């Protein structure tokens, strides 16, 4: 039975996620549950903070250190992506 529809992530992506995980957790710990941009408190578990790569256009790049990323609330994260992807669909409603 094929499982490719269930898990679309490539092995490379999975390895990257695994490497990023401790860094992301450290960033979230630094944020202490508050957005690092607007200071809004995240309403867990409904609106968890997203760890976003600070470098413009580098969202798919690996977050290698806590300086590379920032913890953003769902609104700031959406804004960051809208600013960059002006003419494409906003992030609301889930994954691209
Ligand atoms: Zn925010
Ligand atoms: Zn992002």
Provide an overview of this structure.
The chain contains two helices and two strands; from the N terminus they run H-E-E-H. It has helices at 11-31, 74-84, and strands spanning 50-53, 69-72. Strands 1-2 form a two-stranded antiparallel ribbon. It is globular, with a radius of gyration of 14 Å. The model has no long low-confidence stretch (mean pLDDT 81). It binds zinc ion (ZN) (2 copies). One zinc ion binds at residues 52, 59, 77, 80-81.
- Judging from the principal axes of the Cα atoms, what is the shape? globular
CATH architecture of one domain: 3-Layer(aba) Sandwich
Strand order of the largest sheet: 1-2
Order of helices and strands: HEEH
The amount of helix comes to 25-40%
Number of distinct helices: 2
Number of E-state strands? 2
What small ligands are held by the chains?
A: zinc ion
Just give the CATH class of one domain.
Answer: Alpha Beta
- The CATH topology of one domain comes to His-Me finger endonuclease fold
Range of strand content: 5-15%
**Largest sheet, strands/sense/barrel:** 2 strands, antiparallel
> How confident is the prediction overall: mean pLDDT?
81
* Poorly predicted segments: none
List keywords for this structure.
single chain; His-Me finger endonuclease fold; 2 strands; globular; binds zinc ion
What can be said about this structure in brief?
This protein has helices spanning 11-31, 74-84, and strands at 50-53, 69-72. It is of the alpha+beta class and 96 residues long. The longest helix has 21 residues, at 11-31.
């Amino acid at each position: 039975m094929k499982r490719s529809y269930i898990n679309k992530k490539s092995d490379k992506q999975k390895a990257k996620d695994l490497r990023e995980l401790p860094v992301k957790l450290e960033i979230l710990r630094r944020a202490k549950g508050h957005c690092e941009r607007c200071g809004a408190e995240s309403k867990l578990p409904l609106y968890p903070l997203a760890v976003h790569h600070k470098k413009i256009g580098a969202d798919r790049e690996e977050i290698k250190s806590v300086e590379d990323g920032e913890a953003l609330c769902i609104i700031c994260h959406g804004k960051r992506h809208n600013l960059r992807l002006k003419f494409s669909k906003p992030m609301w409603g889930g994954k691209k």
